[in-house]
Design the sequence.
C-alpha cells in the first residue's frame, strides 16, 4: 500500500494468515522537546513503554532514539540498517511518537487535497531551509516498508502523531488546554533530498502485500495527548498498543492476537482514554479476514500490574433498555430505575457519602482541583473532605470549578452544571471512579459505543448506547452522572443477567441536568452478583473504593470494562 502514512500519523500492523513470522528487530523513536515547535509531554514515555513491551515479546534487537538522537541522518541510517538486515520471515517494528504536520505535496497530483504528511524531528525549524529539512516524509516511510517487504519481511509500523485540525467535540476554554501531536506552519523551501521516488507518493490500499494500517484518526482530525491514570500524559494509541502486546487484547487467552482482536482493543482503549475524541481508523484486511489473521504470537504472559483497590442529583436522561432492534423511546417522565431517589430523603442503604481518607487512584497522590478567577478559598471545605490538592487553573488541574456559573470541567469538557461548592465531593469521587475504570478497561476492554456520534448532544436528542460482543456473557450496565450519582440500568426486573445475543441497546433522550453521563458496561463469564447488589443498594452516590474492591474480587471471571461519555448541553 502506498500509504498516507501520517494522515493522522497512524498505527500500522501486518498480518499473514498462516503465521510463522518471527519478531526480529525494532526502531523506536520519541521526541518531546522541540527547539522551535511546541513541546509534548508523553512521546518519550510512549517510546520507552513500547520498547519494553517489544522486549517482553522477545524482540531483543531494539534501537531507541530519543529527543535529539532522532535527527534525519540518524533516522535514515537506522531505516537503511533495518531494511538491509531483513530476511524472509522477519518482522521489523518501527514506532514513532512526536509531532506531525501537513505540507504542500511534492509530487503534483499525489494527494486529493494537495498536501502530504510529515513527521517532525527535534531541530525542525519552518523558517530555516536547513532546519525545515529535519523531518521524515510520509512517502519515505512507504519507501522503507517496501524495502522490508522486498526482502521477504514485514513491517509493524506504530506512529503516534497527527496532522489534521478537527475535533469530535469543541474545547471549553475554561478547562485545561489539550496538547496536540500536530502543528501548522508555512514552511520555507527546504533542502531535503528525499530517498523516496514519485511512486511512493500515491496512496493505495493494495500495494503493501502484508500490511494493514490503524490510523490514530483521519487526515482531518487532531489527536491530543491524554492523561492516563498511573501513566501520566501519553499518546492513547501508543499506550493501547503496548498494553495489547502485554496480552490485554488476547481475550481468548491462546497467545495469538488476530488483526480483529487487536484492532477492537486498541480502538476501544484509545477512544476511552481520549474521552471519545480519538477514533482509530482501520485500513487493511476485510473484517472477515481480520478475525482469522494473526498479527503476533505472544511469548510471555500478561504483564499488566494490578491497580490499588478502591474507588456518585440524578442524570439528565430518559432511558429505555431494549433488545435489538430498538423499540420506541418512552415518555420523558419515565423513571430510569426501579426505585428512583426522592429529593431530600436519605437512603440508609446507600453505600455513598464522600468520606475522609478516600484513597486516590493508583499513580496519583490527589485529585488536582482549581477554581477560576483565583477563588480557591471557596474550596477550603472540599479540601478537608476529599483527597484533593488546590492548584491554579494553569497547573493542569483534573477538575476546574467556575464559581460564577457553577460549572465543573474535566479537561476540555463540562461534566456537571449547577454544582455548588458543597456538592463537589461527589464530582471528585466520580473522577476517582473514572480513573480506576480506565485502568481496569486497559486490562480487559468491553466493546461499547455511542450512536450516532460522540459530539455534544442537545436537549431532546435521542441517542443510543450499544454494547457488543456479549454472547454468553453476563452484563451489568449503569450510569455515573457528572456529579457522581449512580443508577443501575441492567439487569432490572426480569432482564436476563446472561446475554444470549451479541448486542444490547439502550436508547436515551437528553434532558436536564446537563453535563456528562458516563455509561459503564461490565461483563464477565459468571454473574456479577456482588456488583449488582452494590449498585442496587446505591440509590444515589457510590463509593469508588467499594466499586473497585468488588471489581477486584471479580477479576478472575474474565472481567471486561467499557464506558462511553454522553456529553450534553441545553
Sequence:
Amino acid at each position: 500500500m502506498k500509504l498516507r502514512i501520517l494522515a493522522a500519523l497512524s498505527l500500522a500492523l501486518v498480518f499473514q494468515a498462516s503465521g510463522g513470522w518471527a519478531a526480529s528487530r525494532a526502531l523506536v523513536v520519541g521526541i518531546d522537546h522541540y527547539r522551535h515547535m511546541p513541546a509534548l509531554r508523553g512521546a518519550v514515555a510512549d517510546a520507552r513503554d513500547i520498547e519494553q513491551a517489544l522486549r517482553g515479546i522477545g524482540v531483543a534487537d531494539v534501537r531507541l532514539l530519543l529527543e535529539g538522537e532522532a535527527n534525519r541522518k540518524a533516522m535514515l541510517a537506522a531505516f537503511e540498517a533495518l531494511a538491509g538486515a531483513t530476511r524472509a520471515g522477519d518482522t521489523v517494528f518501527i514506532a514513532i511518537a512526536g509531532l506531525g504536520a501537513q505540507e504542500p505535496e511534492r509530487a503534483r497530483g499525489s494527494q486529493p487535497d494537495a498536501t502530504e504528511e510529515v513527521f517532525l524531528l527535534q531541530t525542525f525549524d519552518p523558517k530555516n531551509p536547513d532546519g525545515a529539512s529535519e523531518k521524515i516524509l510520509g512517502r519515505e516511510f512507504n519507501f522503507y516498508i517496501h524495502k522490508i517487504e522486498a526482502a521477504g519481511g514485514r513491517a509493524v509500523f506504530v506512529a503516534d502523531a497527527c496532522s489534521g485540525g478537527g475535533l469530535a467535540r469543541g474545547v471549553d476554554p475554561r478547562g485545561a488546554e489539550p496538547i496536540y501531536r500536530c502543528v501548522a506552519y508555512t514552511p520555507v523551501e527546504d533542502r531535503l533530498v528525499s530517498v523516496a521516488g514519485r511512486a511512493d507518493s500515491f496512496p493505495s490500499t493494495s500495494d503493501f502485500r502484508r500490511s494493514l494500517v490503524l490510523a490514530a484518526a483521519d487526515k482531518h482530525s487532531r489527536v491530543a495527548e491524554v492523561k492516563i491514570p498511573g501513566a501520566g500524559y501519553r499518546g492513547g494509541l501508543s499506550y493501547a498498543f503496548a498494553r495489547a502486546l502485554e496480552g490485554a487484547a488476547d481475550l481468548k487467552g491462546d497467545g495469538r492476537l488476530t488483526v480483529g482482536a487487536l484492532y477492537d482493543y486498541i480502538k476501544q482503549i484509545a477512544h476511552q482514554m481520549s474521552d471519545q475524541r480519538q477514533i482509530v481508523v482501520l485500513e487493511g484486511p476485510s473484517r472477515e479476514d481480520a478475525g482469522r489473521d494473526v498479527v503476533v504470537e505472544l511469548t510471555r504472559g500478561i504483564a499488566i500490574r494490578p491497580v490499588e483497590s478502591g474507588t456518585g442529583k440524578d442524570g439528565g436522561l430518559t432511558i429505555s433498555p431494549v433488545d435489538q432492534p430498538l423499540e420506541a423511546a418512552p415518555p420523558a417522565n419515565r423513571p430510569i430505575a426501579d426505585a428512583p431517589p426522592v429529593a431530600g430523603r436519605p437512603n440508609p442503604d446507600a453505600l455513598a457519602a464522600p468520606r475522609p481518607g478516600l484513597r486516590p487512584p493508583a499513580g496519583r497522590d490527589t485529585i488536582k482541583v482549581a477554581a477560576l478567577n483565583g477563588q480557591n478559598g471557596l474550596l477550603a471545605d472540599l479540601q478537608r473532605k476529599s483527597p484533593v490538592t488546590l492548584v491554579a487553573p494553569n497547573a493542569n488541574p483534573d477538575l476546574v470549578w467556575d464559581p460564577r456559573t457553577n460549572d465543573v470541567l474535566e479537561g476540555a469538557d463540562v461534566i456537571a452544571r449547577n454544582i455548588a461548592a458543597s456538592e463537589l465531593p461527589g464530582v471528585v469521587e466520580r473522577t476517582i471512579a473514572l480513573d480506576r475504570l480506565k485502568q481496569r478497561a486497559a486490562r480487559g476492554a468491553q466493546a461499547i459505543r455511542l450512536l450516532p456520534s460522540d459530539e455534544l448532544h442537545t436537549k431532546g436528542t435521542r441517542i443510543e448506547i450499544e454494547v457488543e460482543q456479549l454472547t454468553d456473557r453476563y452484563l451489568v450496565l449503569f450510569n455515573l452522572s457528572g456529579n457522581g450519582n449512580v443508577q443501575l440500568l441492567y439487569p432490572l426486573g426480569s432482564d436476563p443477567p446472561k446475554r444470549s445475543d451479541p448486542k444490547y441497546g439502550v436508547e436515551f433522550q437528553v434532558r436536564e441536568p446537563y453535563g456528562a453521563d458516563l455509561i459503564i458496561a461490565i461483563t464477565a463469564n459468571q454473574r456479577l452478583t456482588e456488583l449488582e447488589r452494590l449498585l442496587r443498594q446505591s440509590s444515589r452516590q457510590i463509593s469508588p473504593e467499594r466499586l473497585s474492591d468488588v471489581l477486584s474480587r471479580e477479576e478472575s471471571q474474565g472481567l471486561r470494562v467499557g464506558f462511553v461519555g454522553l456529553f450534553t448541553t441545553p
